[in-house]
Amino acid sequence: MTNSPVTIGINGFFLGKPHTGIGKYVFHLLEGLARQFPHLTFYVYCPPSVSHVLKEHTLFTYPNLTLRTVEVRFYRREDYLWKYVWERFHLPGAAGKDNVDLFWSPYHSTSRFQAIPHVMTVHDVVHHVDQRYVLNHRRAWYMKRSDKAAQEADHILTVSQSSQTDITEKLAIPPVRITAIPHGAPHLPDTSETISLSSPFLLYVGGFDLRKNVPTLLEGYHRLIHHYPGPHPLLVMLGSMPDAPITSPIKQEIVRLNLEKYVYLPGKVSEEMLAAYLQKAQLLVYPSGYEGFGLPILEGMQAGTPVVTSQWGAMAEVAGDAAELTDSTSPEALAESFYTVLSDSDYQRKLSYKGGERVGQFRWEEAARATGNVLERHLPS
Question: How far apart are CA 270 and CA 276, in angstroms?
């Protein structure tokens, strides 16, 4: 290599979605990479809708982070076709003009590079695990091309050993070409926000799409309040609901189970309000059937709140022995786990203590260091 600065291009699309799991992943790692690898220069490529918002962001006060705007001029509706054109043609073109030494795609995208080493993060392969995620033919078309791009990448990053196993099995990428680097623990902001609810409550955070097992959660909660002695907490479910077909009919299910008086849907809330809910909840419920990681588990533990989550895959891997693990496909098992925690104050304190220990094992600084080391290993020699 020459003595000129080493430059790494990065797809910054998810910086426009800062409250999603991938959005948080990209923000934290960019900050860590900029701070821990000052000898590297990072070009962060974003569409105009994202770069316009980021121009004044403190992230780009780091001298080795440069924001680049990449536009698709002939097609402006941001759908799967737009995303494919932006990732597959415009990003490689911009990176080539900037003579970057390596490109990192921090999500499962369709980008492919001919002359630049390419590292891609694949968070999960849910579209192979649950076919309901590819019923939309445009999404199926896009995911087929993103799978091809992942298979051609020089190296794959992922966020759990569970996902690494799935990627090898579903995409036929050998383990030697995959590195699993877990997320760091979330930082819960200090909050002066207050919650209008005076009653005790269970808290659900994590989205409403099909893999989240939310209808089963509602059935389990229904069973708790009808088959177990009280007093019974309310159920608070945070977040906005995306459009069908990947969303379960949550409101209809609440009506069917006659839970209108028991389930509270505040919608999307700020990070400060999320922290307030987490700190006040009796327990956090995360019954997802499939995840690449499961960040809400750590959010609950960070707040000192006992966690009930799924007994398999990435959820069990993240939780370790610091949560109540259960069969999240079974309403009966969920109800029993809720009651097991709610009825035993000693067990609640034990989970809270062990959760605090467990969450300390996940650090964004370490995730950024490990990610930067992988990127450096794949720079051209």
Answer: 10
- pTM for the model stands at 0.92
Instruction: Assign 143 to helix, strand or coil.
Output: helix
- With tokens 């990479």, the residue in question is 33
Average pLDDT value for residue range 257-262: 96
Q: CA separation (Å) from 165 to 4, 89, 160, 220? A: 38, 30, 9, 30
Q: Which residue has the tokens 């009930």?
A: 308
> In the 8-state DSSP scheme, what is residue 381?
-
Task: Name which of 23-32, 50-59, 259-268, 295-304 the model is least confident about.
Answer: 50-59
Which of 94, 92, 89 lies closest to 66 in space, CA to CA? 94
**What single-letter DSSP state applies at residue 154?**
S
Phi/psi for 37 (5° steps) reads -125, 65
Does residue 45 sit in helix, strand or coil? Answer: strand
The sign one gets for the Cα dihedral 238, 242, 248, 250 is: positive
Q: Say how far apart CA 23 and CA 14 lie, in whole Å.
A: 5
| Residue 60: closest CA among 22, 102, 27 | 27
- How many other C-beta atoms are found inside a 10 Å radius of the C-beta of residue 364? 19
Structural contact between residues 27 and 59, judged by C-beta atoms closer than 8 angstroms: yes
- Say if residue 127's pLDDT is above 80: yes
Cα–Cα distance for residue pair 7/327, rounded to 1 Å: 46
* Tokens representing residue 94 in the block: 């911009």
What residue ranges define each of the domains in the chain, with the CATH number in brackets? 6-184+363-377 (3.40.50.2000), 201-359 (3.40.50.2000)
DSSP annotation string for 196-228: S--S-EEEE-S--BGGG-HHHHHHHHHHHHHHS
At residue 232, does pLDDT exceed 90? Answer: yes
For residue 257, which amino acid is it? L
3-state class (DSSP) for residue 95: helix
Contact 23, 17 (CB under 8 A): yes
Percent of the chain with pLDDT over 90: 81
The DSSP result for 10-30, as a single string, is: EE-GGGG-TTSHHHHHHHHHH
Q: The tokens of 173 are what?
A: 């990428």
Can you tell me the distance from the alpha carbon of 81 to that of 58, in angstroms, rounded to the nearest whole number? 32
